[in-house]
Design brief:
By secondary structure, this protein is an alpha/beta fold. Among the domains are: about 120 residues, no CATH class; about 100 residues, no CATH class. Helices cover about 50% and strands about 10% of the residues. The strands form two sheets. It has a five-stranded mixed sheet, sandwiched between helices. A two-stranded antiparallel ribbon has the order 1-2. The two termini are about 45 Å apart.
């Protein structure tokens, strides 16, 4: 076999002294389809005496005999399939049976419930850290819990995003509470004295229900896209007037795109918007005021409703012109809530409030990992392997610090 440093066989024929060195390896990939959960069957041969019927079995290796039936990766795979891909347990059961590796839906739930008991303290630590974020965004979508539906009760799913230092925390809540009550429950845990920027749409149900002393540190922002959308949806009927509004808002978003491209600091971004976007927004609101003052539109028309919306919410719609780091819209929250919508479309509903709590915890942890460039598969596996430490110190097992915690524990064990 040719090795680096040996003589080149081709150079030998021409009397040169070339030597071989390592080159780029040739890589071949062969892919094989498998079910979500795979297994290995170990068979121990046995013998039996034909006179006394004494049975003798070959011993199994301790690595096989003492290992648990379900590896930690089984529950992790089920959690990702169920609460990230949105696969119903019954569908997973059918898929497993097609591959000859049965996995009953009841067994799946037992494994997920056991994993939930391990990750629950981390889910609580994640909520506590989210309460102290400098920027929060949230939005609602209809949620379905079968037990509530049979009682005629409405349910909702809230996607709550918090930016804490450099981390992005995603939390999901499914139940009878609207986004305002869910966000208020998180903010009630807040210990930071710094103000928080809160972005949402102008729905009354989004108004946060929190402690009175926190309202002084609450900077309200409303989504500019929601205001734009009202004009876009009626642009065919009021083309000239709507185009005027849409073009101005488009200029503001072009300015914001420039800030993102140049990676401006929040202070520099604010100055840029005050210089380039403020004149556009001032001219827009002068025009909107004239439309209302001089009766240039039918007040009860779609256009009149869109004008009233922009004028009524002028202050929160223009927070980005006064506060560093204030976003223009809640599109980040709307993208996050698509995770819950995908789950709802595929799985239709949770059976009980308890099932919803389990789903919210896994959905929050998995999506938080994804948005912080952390592998959720490795993360959930690690939480199971270090279960006692996770329960004792959940704040040290968040997606962005768990690897450091593992390294510290391994060093202590080695010592």
């Amino acid at each position: 076999m040719l090795q680096a440093g040996s003589a080149c066989p081709d150079c030998a024929s021409c009397q040169t002294k070339g030597r071989l060195q390592w080159d780029e390896p040739q890589v071949l990939v062969r892919l094989v389809g498998n079910p979500l959960i795979t297994g290995t069957r170990y068979v121990a041969r046995g013998t039996r005496c034909n006179v006394c019927n004494t049975r003798f079995k070959a011993p199994l290796p301790s690595s096989v005999k003492d290992a648990p039936k379900y590896d930690a990766s089984v529950a992790t795979t089920l959690a990702i399939a169920r609460y990230s891909l949105g696969l119903p347990m019954h569908r997973i059961e059918k898929n497993q049976s097609h591959h000859g590796v049965p996995m009953r839906d009841a067994t799946q739930w037992d494994l997920l419930r056991a994993l939930y008991q391990i990750v629950y303290p981390v889910y609580g630590a994640l909520q506590k850290q989210a309460s102290n974020g400098s920027l929060i965004l949230y939005d609602d979508t209809p949620g379905r819990i079968l037990e509530y539906k049979t009682q005629g009760l409405a349910t909702h799913t809230t996607a709550f995003i918090s930016v804490y230092e450099e981390q992005k925390i995603f939390l999901y809540f499914t139940g009878r509470n609207h986004a305002g009550k869910n966000s208020g429950a998180i903010l009630d845990k807040r210990t930071s004295e710094q103000p928080v920027i809160a972005m949402m749409d102008a729905s009354p149900s989004n108004a946060p229900q929190m402690k009175t002393e926190l309202t002084a540190r609450f900077i309200l922002c409303f989504c500019l896209v929601h205001g734009r959308r009202k004009f876009f949806e009626i642009s065919n009927a009021f083309e000239e007037n709507c185009d005027f509004v849409l073009n101005i808002i488009g200029q503001v978003y072009a300015n914001d795109a420039h800030c993102k491209k140049d990676k401006l600091t929040p202070e520099a971004r604010l100055l840029y918007h005050q210089t380039h976007s403020q004149p556009w927004m001032d001219s827009l609101y002068v025009w909107l005021n004239n439309q209302r003052t001089y009766g240039q539109h039918e007040p009860n028309s779609g256009f009149g409703e869109a004008v009233r919306y922009m004028l009524r919410h002028r202050i929160p719609l223009t927070t980005f012109l006064r506060v560093p780091g204030a976003p223009l819209d809640s599109s980040w929250a709307e993208r996050a809530i698509k995770i819950a919508i995908r789950h709802r479309r595929n799985s239709l509903f949770y059976k009980t409030p308890r099932g919803a709590e389990v789903g919210d915890a896994f959905m929050s942890l998995i999506h938080t990992c994804t948005q912080n460039n952390v592998n959720p598969y490795d993360y959930l596996n690690s939480l199971q392997r270090y279960g006692p430490s996770v329960e004792a110190m959940p704040e040290q097992w968040l997606p962005w610090n768990y690897l450091q915690t593992i390294a510290t524990l391994d060093v202590r064990l080695a010592a």
